[in-house]
Amino acid sequence: MTVAAREARRAAKVRAFADEYPFAPHFHRLPDGLRVHYVDEGPADAAPLLFVHGNPTWSFYWRKPIQAFAAEQRCIAPDHLGCGFSDKPAAWSYRLADHVANLEHLVLALDLRRITLVVHDWGGPIGLGFAERHRDRIARLIVLNTAAFPNDTWGGRAPLRIRACRTPLFGPLAVRGLNAFARMATVMAVEKHERMTPTVRAGFLAPYDSYENRIATLRFVEDIPLSRSHPTYPTLAGIADGLAGLRGLPMCIIWGERDWCFTPAFRREWQRRFPDARVHTADDAGHYVVEDAAERVVDWIRAFQADHPIED
Q1: How far is residue 133 from each of residues 6, 49, 147, 207, 285, measured CA to CA in Å?
Q2: Which range of residues forms the domain containing residue 49?
Q3: At residue 257, what are phi and psi to the nearest 5 degrees?
Q4: CA atoms of 79 and 87, how far apart (whole Å)
Q5: In angstroms, how far is CA 118 from the centroid of its own chain?
Q6: Does residue 8 register a pLDDT over 90?
Q7: Cβ-contact 36, 106 below 8 angstroms
Q8: What is the rounded (10 degree) CA torsion for 45, 299, 50, 141?
Q9: Does residue 312 fall inside a structural domain?
Q10: Separation of alpha carbons 114 and 194, rounded Å
Q11: Which residue of 61, 190, 214, 306 has the smallest Cβ count within 10 Å?
Q12: Strand 138-144 relative to strand 115-120, pairing
């Protein structure tokens, strides 16, 4: 497919939710020739907010914070390979280590510094994996409903519904064939269902409209290291070990307390590891905390940044 054809297809998809996602597309070419799509809004010379999404979302998840902060800060929100409007190759690893490498390549190419890193879900280990390699580029950390440490190191456990999606035959059929993971997330990951309007739902699901385009949705689930023999376990364990090196940075933890996946137990583990972090909880919000509590999330981020200004 030509670049023009891909852009026409992307534009056609966005048309259904353009009012929610009014951002110009940007693309970064990786060393292997694959393209990563990203949002880049706001003053180019301002200290950036770097938003890193999880699964099965994409940069659309960050649209409200981007719109709230783009007048004063540069807002960067990439789509991981296989997600959003990034390329979705069939023959790629889709391993945590390689997602971290892709983010690193993009951030270094853009030469982002004084970064406020904002992470959610899989964005946690991906973004923090990058931060540990380039601590000098990070000014502040904001963590929302995520984990960056193996479950067996602190007593956490993956929910049954996640484990079911990893089952041979059933997993590919449900996740890629029926798009069950992404579709059900628009119901199970939110508490305020009135906010998941048809337009918003269309935005979440638009990039995942075929079996081929849902490859990352399944691969992310399969890449959860539930045992020490999993290929990604050493990567995640290494990121967990490196978290101590980030303790000197200002950190804000924002948590949807009704998250059935990243439960409040995960929040408490973050607090144990970062006892000086500022903590905000949304008792009426689920996993998609930015959907359920967008206004509060924006206010909390704004106040946190004001209390921890970045020196020029």
Answers
A1: 33, 18, 18, 30, 32
A2: 3-307
A3: -75, -15
A4: 9
A5: 8
A6: no
A7: yes
A8: 110
A9: no
A10: 37
A11: 306
A12: parallel
Which residues are CB-contacts of 245 (< 8 A; sequence separation ≥ 6)? 132, 135
Q: How many domains does the chain have?
A: 1
Element (H, E) at 119: strand 115-120
Paired tokens of 261: 């996946």
- pLDDT (tens digit, 9 = 90+) per residue, 112-124? 999 999 999 999 9
Distance CA 258, CA 285 (A): 6
Please state the φ and ψ torsions of residue 178, each to the nearest 5 degrees: -105, -5
- Residues that are catalytic: 121, 259, 287
120 Cβ contact partners less than 8 Å away, ≥ 6 residues apart: 52, 53, 54, 57, 61, 144, 145, 146, 289, 290
How many Å apart are CA 226 and CA 157, to the nearest integer?
A: 8
Residue 200 placed within a domain: yes
Are 256 and 288 in contact, with CB atoms under 8 Å apart?
yes
| Mean pLDDT value across residues 30-37 | 97
Least confidently predicted of 63-67, 165-169, 302-306: 165-169
Element (H, E) at 36: strand 35-41
Type of residue at 151: N
Question: Range with the lowest mean pLDDT among 50-54, 158-162, 244-248, 291-295?
Answer: 158-162
Q: What is the pLDDT of residues 227-245, one digit of tens each?
A: 999 999 999 999 999 999 9
pTM score, whole prediction: 0.97
Burial label for 11, CB within 10 Å (0-12, 13-18, 19+), is exposed
Compute how many other C-beta atoms are within 10 angstroms of the C-beta atom of residue 194.
6
| pLDDT score for 1 | 67
Residue 184 covered by a domain: yes
CATH of the domain at 279: 3.40.50.1820
Report the length, in residues, of the chain: 312
| pLDDT level of residue 30 (50, 70, 90 thresholds) | very high
